[in-house]
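Handout, page 2. Input:
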Amino acid sequence: MLLNASGCLDALEAPAVARSLDAFVTKTVTPLPRDGNAPVRIAEVEHGMLNSIGLANPGIERFVADHLPRLAELGVPLWVSVGGFATDDYARSCSILDDHDEVDAIELNVSCPNVETAAESASEVVAAARHETWKPLYAKLSPAVPDVSAVALAAQEAGANGLSLVNTIRGLALDEHSLRPRLAAEVGGLSGPGLKPVALAAIFSCYRATGLPIVGMGGVTNGRDALELIAAGAAHVALGTVLFTDPAAPDRIRRELAAEAAAHGFDDPAQAHGAAHAAQAPPSPGSLSPARTTA
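Output:
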């Protein structure tokens, strides 16, 4: 399955691109509206770009009332990314989304590098969200931790159905002339080709540790990149920065992925899933049910 990385595609502005995906992931929504960080918020850098949007969004109530009905008209499965600054923020949004059949899955953004206040631990967020919804939950994790596989395992034990790997990592770009930070917030999240080795390492270790379905993302620009993420353990692939420069990327990358898989002897790209792990099989996913728990 081919998706977009959250925040890298405005489906209402580019519906044809959204329809070329197998599922659309919304920009991260928080309980209250946010203006985000001050401009400048995006800077191109070697091997990628930095962004410091700061979770700008209309808030969950306006999103559900105004945006969700229009997104549902696209005719593709919808994943809603939710974020916050405390466990209760995630729980509140998941409770609201649980009542909407248009939402196929929820991605818990517990790893945004562009906000001043960090969320509570991933396991606490997942557990609180699991209490409020029956829907599949994917925990989006940061690779900027000593052991991302340990975080992934904790998220699995708390009730996550899958993982999104990886979010951006913090970076800094300096102006060529002034040598001052190019972003108003100074640092931002690095995405693009330079992130791919980091993503591969996180996917590889988390697949081996958990066996959970993984949406792999980070530096995918062509079919070879997608095949490598699949071989490392990604069941699905999300496109991010490439969508800014090539809106036709989903169809192109599908063709390239099929050709790359065939060149490696696979009849279908899915057969390459986990190929980087050779003979070592991943553990069976835990028996945790996605059903709502009791308080």
